User: Which sequence fits this backbone?
């Protein structure tokens, strides 16, 4: 498969993955031993959420935007709730905020467990998938399933359903679960936390490509808690913004190769959102157990190696289990389970941390509460340029690899991001051209 | 590997069109059964799970998502040709999904509302279910589908029998679990009487009305329910909105949403 000829004389085109699906392709062009161009092309058919939200009632938005993503519907529901409550100038109670955070922990647990064990880990073993990995390490795959199941149970207990929860409404919840309904999750969550610690040790032992990237980290930051459901927005170069501030600073660009918009900060700068950013900016707010486990896994204050994001996700997985346990122990059912949010004219902003990165929404409502305009900026759109940057560096540093191995490494580079384009990690058709 | 000694396992392929991935995730959400399922079949194509890929033909193809591009129109025909059984999963694949809201609008306006350069976007004016394009052997509904129903469909396909999936309404599920009727007792607008069962009547159990994510039940009397909703005080336009969500393209819901769209049309 590999054509070992001098780099400056070869033209190789590899259809690395024989994927025919339309979601995305990746092109890496190498000329004279230099990676000249990297393009992540996104073909995911456009679905036009921002357009068809126009004219819908503000109370319908959370159900509709959940359908953007089957893997992180809560992120969409939560960012939308915050934005609409901001537009209508309504604040929810602390009990409602805590219950939202608990639901969000469930989503982090199931999404991170899925990505760590099923989507990402197989790359480190040269396995096509977790089924093949189960042949090598059944316990690890089983552990992933167990943790994921507990995350889903938590989402069902609070949200009524794991995929597209039905219990969320603007202003809070349709119904507050009873303490008994949550207490049954304590034992499974303790087990999940312990299994997550085992998985953290497991992934910390993987072999990682040696690469360090000087990212501009962007993430929510909360003074008291590791940022998930609320907070202001911090950047590694010292900005401190609210959701409106980030929405105004981020400029999205529409390029011919993509049905996802490319985001830049202040119109020019590439930035990174997701676990590496959250960890770099918020590790002080992790629980003592998660912090110690991170140190034992070899993480410093900042992790600049994108391949090691699997370790950071495992730390966050430990944290999310612990945080869920803390929230259940302190749980007071909000009564009433929601605050009324009368529709009024206004503009509102909301940002939360989806498992794969910051997600912000902006809604403009008319006096009836109907949506006039909507803007939704998902994490993968924000990370797209950063993914391409990583690919350029990784490909350049690994030109000695065979086409097959280089293709796989490029795919893995994309999977480092847990991209949510089609909400699957395995969406790419990679071609490497060498001239 | 010697072909003669290998017991042939049925091949399963999972395909994605315009969708959120939630229905194929339902398969991965079968945490207790997943390893059993993948042990009973050979997974030939499932990009959410695996980078491995095999050529067809496929014994069973599960198809998620709706058709929204010319490219996908051609792709679904190829998948149909390569598949012995083709099962569509979820509201997108069975009725066009939430993105079928474009079917009521001017697509040019939609594109320019989202994208700065409409010329880069290639899309069809309508979002349509798979069955508008190829023959479908079974349609499993829901936004998302229910994972237990999915296991039933896969089991039925592998054993060569018809899936046992009820066509009655959500009302029966509410009665089954003893949930007080939110429509009768509280006057909450609820699509339960016309919506296919399968979710387990989740919404009334959290004190809200069913929002129809499983699409129309068999013999759904939508016009009767719509009249009742207006009698209880729901405005005509809100009745229209209620029918126009994740199954906006399903004929019974579409018809009612059009009837109630304008304040003048009486019934």
Assistant:
């Amino acid at each position: 498969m590999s054509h070992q000829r001098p780099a400056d004389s070869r033209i190789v085109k590899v259809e690395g993955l024989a994927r025919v699906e339309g979601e995305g392709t990746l092109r890496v062009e190498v000329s004279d031993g230099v990676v000249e161009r990297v393009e992540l092309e996104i073909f995911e058919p456009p679905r036009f959420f921002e357009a068809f939200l126009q004219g819908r009632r503000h109370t319908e938005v959370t159900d509709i935007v959940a359908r953007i993503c089957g893997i992180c519907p809560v992120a969409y529901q939560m960012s939308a709730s915050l934005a609409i409550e901001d537009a209508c100038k309504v604040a929810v109670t602390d009990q409602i905020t805590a219950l939202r955070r608990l639901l969000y922990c469930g989503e982090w647990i199931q999404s991170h467990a899925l990505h760590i064990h099923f989507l990402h880990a197989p790359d480190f073993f040269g396995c096509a998938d977790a089924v093949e990995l189960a042949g090598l390490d059944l316990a690890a795959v089983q552990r992933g399933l167990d943790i994921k199941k507990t995350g889903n149970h938590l989402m069902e207990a609070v949200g009524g359903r794991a995929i597209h929860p039905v219990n969320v409404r603007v202003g809070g919840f349709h119904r507050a679960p009873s303490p008994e309904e949550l207490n049954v999750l304590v034992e499974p969550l303790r087990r999940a936390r312990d299994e997550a610690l085992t998985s953290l040790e497991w992934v910390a032992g993987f072999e990682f490509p040696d690469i360090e990237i000087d990212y501009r980290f962007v993430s929510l930051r909360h003074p008291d808690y590791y940022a998930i459901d609320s907070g202001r927005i911090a950047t590694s170069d010292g900005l401190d913004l609210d959701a409106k501030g980030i929405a105004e600073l981020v400029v999205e660009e529409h390029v011919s190769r993509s049905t996802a918009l490319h985001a830049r900060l202040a119109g020019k700068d590439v930035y990174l959102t997701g676990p590496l950013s959250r960890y770099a900016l918020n590790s002080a707010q992790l629980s003592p157990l998660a912090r110690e486990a991170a140190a034992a896994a070899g993480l410093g204050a900042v992790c600049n190696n994108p391949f090691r994001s699997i370790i950071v996700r495992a730390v966050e997985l430990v944290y999310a289990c612990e945080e869920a346990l803390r929230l259940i122990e302190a749980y007071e059912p909000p009564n009433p389970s929601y605050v009324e949010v009368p529709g009024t004219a206004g503009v509102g902003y909301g940002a939360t941390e989806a498992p794969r990165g910051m997600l912000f929404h902006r809604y403009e409502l008319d006096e009836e509460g109907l949506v006039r305009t909507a803007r939704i900026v998902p994490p993968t759109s924000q990370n797209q340029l950063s993914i391409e940057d990583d690919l350029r560096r990784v490909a350049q540093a690994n030109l000695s690899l065979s086409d097959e191995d280089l293709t796989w490494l490029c795919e893995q580079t994309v999977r480092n991001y847990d991209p949510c384009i089609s909400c699957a990690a395995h969406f790419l058709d990679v071609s490497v051209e060498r001239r | 590997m010697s072909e003669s000694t290998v017991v042939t396992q049925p091949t399963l392929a999972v395909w994605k069109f315009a969708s959120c991935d939630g229905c194929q995730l339902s398969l991965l959400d079968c945490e207790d059964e997943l390893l059993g399922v993948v042990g009973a079949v050979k997974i030939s194509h499932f990009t959410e799970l695996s980078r491995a890929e095999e050529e067809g033909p496929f014994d069973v193809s599960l198809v998620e998502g709706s058709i929204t591009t010319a490219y996908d129109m051609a792709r679904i025909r190829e998948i149909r040709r390569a598949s012995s059984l083709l099962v569509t999963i979820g509201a997108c694949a069975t009725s066009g999904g939430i993105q079928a809201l474009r079917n009521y609008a001017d697509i040019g306006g939609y594109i320019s509302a989202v994208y700065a350069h409409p010329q880069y976007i290639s899309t069809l004016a309508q979002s349509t279910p798979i069955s508008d394009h190829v023959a479908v052997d079974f349609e499993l509904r829901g936004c998302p589908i229910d994972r237990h129903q999915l296991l039933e469909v896969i089991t039925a396909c592998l054993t060569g029998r018809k899936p046992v999936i009820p066509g009655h309404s959500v009302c029966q599920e509410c009665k089954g679990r003893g949930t007080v009727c939110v429509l009768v007792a509280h006057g909450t607008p609820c699509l339960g009487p016309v919506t296919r069962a399968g979710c387990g009547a989740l919404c009334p159990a959290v004190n809200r009305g069913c929002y129809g994510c499983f699409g129309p039940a068999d013999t759904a009397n939508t016009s009767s329910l719509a009249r009742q909703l207006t009698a209880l005080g729901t405005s005509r336009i809100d009745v229209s909105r209620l029918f126009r969500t994740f199954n906006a393209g399903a004929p019974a819901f579409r018809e009612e949403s059009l009837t109630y769209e304008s304040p003048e049309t009486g019934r």
